[in-house]
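To whoever picks this up:

The parser on our side crashed when reading a file containing two proteins. I've narrowed it down to the boundary between the first structure block and the second sequence. Both blocks are reproduced below exactly, byte for byte. First block:
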Amino acid sequence: MSDLNIRLLLHRLWRMWRDSGRAKDRPPSFAFVPGGDQVRDAVLEQWGISVIASDQDDPQQGLQSFLDKLALDVRGGDGHGGGEGGP
């Protein structure tokens, strides 16, 4: 959250939803972040963004690991595609 442009963007999005009168219809938002930072996480949660934090020090490696796990879960954990009626 050290980049002011990102913080400004998130604030403007939050304010846009609030001012629209449809804040309750806002879809869930998620942010993948490296490492744990309770202050950053609290700020993001305040803006309605759920934090997905990596436990790895290297942000690139953490993101790759997260995406690999996500892909495996989407495929049903067996690598053959997921869903009912699939091969």
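<<boundary where parser fails>>
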Amino acid sequence: MLQFYQTTLGSQLVHTTPNGTSGHERYRLKIAHRRSESVCLEFWYSPVQQPSERSFERTDNYWKIGLTMADLDATRAELMAKDIEASEPRQFRDIGYLCHLTDPDG
């Protein structure tokens, strides 16, 4: 999963917290952002639970991440050229122009 965010989305691993009392490893990734150096994603990974044991649905709320870019159509075209599926962009109310994709971990 980390490789996808680093290689495909251009983020940089800036911190790792080893498996502690929570049973999770944590990874903090910095996302390239022109206006701020503090834009980060933090992933909690459970080495005990394999990806195939998890089940996510589009209606679930806790797993969604929103990324903003200057040109969504161009970004989607770049992802599709790398064989990464992304839905057709659409306007969602007055909230934004968006598309969906799924990382390799589901």
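After patching the parser it read the second block fine. Residues 72-81 form the longest helix (10 residues). The longest strand covers residues 12-17.
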